[in-house]
Design goal:
Blueprint (H helix, E strand, L loop, with lengths): L6 H15 L3 H29 L2 E4 L10 E4 L1 H24 L6 H20 L3 H19 L5 H32 L4 H11 L3 H18 L8 H7 L2 H27 L6 H23 L4 H21 L3 H32 L15 H14 L6 H15 L3 H26 L15 H16 L6 H16 L4 H9 L1
Length: about 500
């Protein structure tokens, strides 16, 4: 079954080149959506494969690690694969109608699939240098996609994003170079094995700082977030959904979790966990406060991405089974409801021609599907029951109390209240009130765009069911165990190679 793993990289990579060579719009629409649908179905299959076979390692070219390059499938990998490919499918489906107003649709899909290739490869790889290669592949594709409209605002945002992201990549590459110099290997499991023998050192701490800054920029954690509020609003709506929904998760949060918990062995160190908690609360509060005053709906959503990432970091920073469960569950939930909100905002811009909430109003009757799906996502991100965001936020708050950190629980509640007030403004100004005269000719979005939004809204509504034992034990809990048993990563992977 491990031979399935390289297909997550090979299939989208080959599809990207195929679509780039064939410039037919209809073929590009069909093949890109088929590719993302197949990848999503394959990612769901990995849940059953993990349950049946446990952790699996694929040896590239049949060269065994640490000499050869490996792909590793464990609980954390499965969680990210499902999340990334779910959002990719929904965003690609939305693109069928939305990207009609742009030229060079085949080039858009080619870049989209290259970005997806990078994220899938980064999540699967068991090699530190290949982690950097896939990180850069996804990053370079995303720079081009942010600037895809080629307007002045988009080009400026893309340049700013590229510069800051490249600085983050430089920190990561320097950290990998020092790690290779210190351990003489690039295989993650082999590095973890060597560092466990040598113990904590000044060199390892310095490497950890480099990785925290580098991956922190990719994850847009405060204070490494300045690129995000410009990049997300400027990109086409499906790309905004990918950037906020999964790119900052795969390139930033996942990389932090994999490297610090499984490779460097810092995972459950009290000082490291305290740093995560502080960064989580700062991101949570600064993001939501900056969002409240925004009238550009996509910029408002961009700041909320920073805030919601803070909840994920806070939950994992508690270091308890309940806290890590809440953090990882919120990672999945945020990917769904924030992607839906960016698709909603793109739909409003597509129909109305503006992102300014003050220039909207009275769209409830004209765009009922968009209004209902946006309301669903707004209630979910605000933590209102029974939507999926409520359950993950509740778990994080309870975990804070259980871990005797009531102050963090207080800030988590305040953050949710401010989030609710922010999205009440969105609903009030976009969909309610007196309709503007220019709104009379507005109509609902094309069918593919509606279908993508309804698909994600259904997951928001029923996502809490993932906490039922049959889903939790096969999807969420294996990812939690990977982080709790991060010090056994090398042992588990090496056992798979025998």
């Amino acid at each position: 079954m491990s031979s399935m793993l390289p297909l997550f990289v090979a299939f989208p990579l080959g599809s990207a080149f195929l679509i780039a060579l064939c410039k037919n719009k209809k073929f590009a629409d069909f093949w890109a959506n088929l590719c993302t649908l197949v990848l999503f179905i394959m990612s769901l299959q990995t849940i059953g494969i993990l349950k049946t076979h446990g952790t699996m390692v694929y040896k590239m070219g049949n060269w065994a690690p640490p000499i050869g390059i490996s792909l590793v499938l464990d609980g954390l990998t499965v969680l990210l694969l499902v999340t990334v490919n779910l959002i990719a499918f929904a965003s690609c489906l939305f693109s069928v109608g939305y990207m009609e107003k742009y030229t060079a649709k085949s080039k858009y899909y080619a870049l989209f699939l290259l970005m997806l290739t990078g994220m899938n490869g980064l999540v699967l790889t068991g090699d530190m240098f290949n982690l950097f290669v896939f990180l850069e592949l996804a990053g370079v594709a995303s720079y081009a996609l942010v600037a895809f409209g080629t307007e002045a605002e988009e080009l400026e945002a893309s340049f700013k994003y590229m510069v800051l992201s490249s600085i983050g990549a430089a920190f990561v590459l320097l950290g990998i170079g020092m790690l290779y110099s210190y351990t003489s290997t690039l295989n993650m499991a082999d590095i973890a094995r060597i560092l466990s023998y040598r113990g904590l050192s000044v060199t390892t701490l310095f490497i950890g700082v480099l990785f925290m800054v580098g991956f922190g920029i990719k994850a847009a954690i405060v204070p490494f977030h300045p690129w995000l509020p410009d990049a997300h609003p400027s990109a086409p709506a499906p790309i905004s959904a990918m950037l906020s929904g999964v790119l900052i998760k795969a390139l930033g949060i996942y990389a932090i979790l994999r490297v610090f918990f499984c490779v460097l062995g810092f995972g459950l160190n009290p000082a490291f966990l305290e740093i995560l908690r502080i960064l989580g609360v700062l991101s949570m509060m600064i993001g939501v406060v900056l969002a409240i005053g925004q009238w550009d709906i996509k910029r408002l959503l961009a700041y909320h991405s920073i805030s919601q990432v803070g909840y994920v970091i806070l939950g994992i920073g508690l270091g308890t089974p309940l806290g890590i469960l809440g953090g990882l569950f919120h990672l999945f939930n945020h990917s769904v409801f924030k992607s839906l909100l960016f698709l909603n905002s793109g739909g409003l811009d597509y129909a109305v021609g503006t992102r300014n909430l003050k220039q909207m109003g009275g769209l409830k009757e004209k765009m009922p599907v968009t209004e209902k799906t946006c309301l669903t996502a707004s209630l979910s991100i605000s933590g209102i029951p029974p939507f999926n965001g409520f359950w993950s936020k509740l778990i994080i708050i309870l975990a804070c109390i259980q871990a005797r950190h009531p102050g963090y629980a207080f800030w988590a509640v305040i953050g949710s209240i401010l989030t609710l007030s922010s999205f009440m403004k969105v609903q009030r100004y976009a969909f309610y009130g007196a309709p503007k005269k220019v709104m009379k000719k507005i109509k609902e979005l094309p069918p593919c765009m509606q279908l993508a939004m309804i698909f994600l809204a259904i997951i928001c509504l029923f996502g809490g069911a993932l906490l039922l034992p049959m889903f939790k034990n096969n999807f969420l809990q294996p990812a939690v165990q990977v982080l709790l048993n991060g010090d056994k990563y090398a042992e588990i992977v090496m056992a798979c190679l025998k």
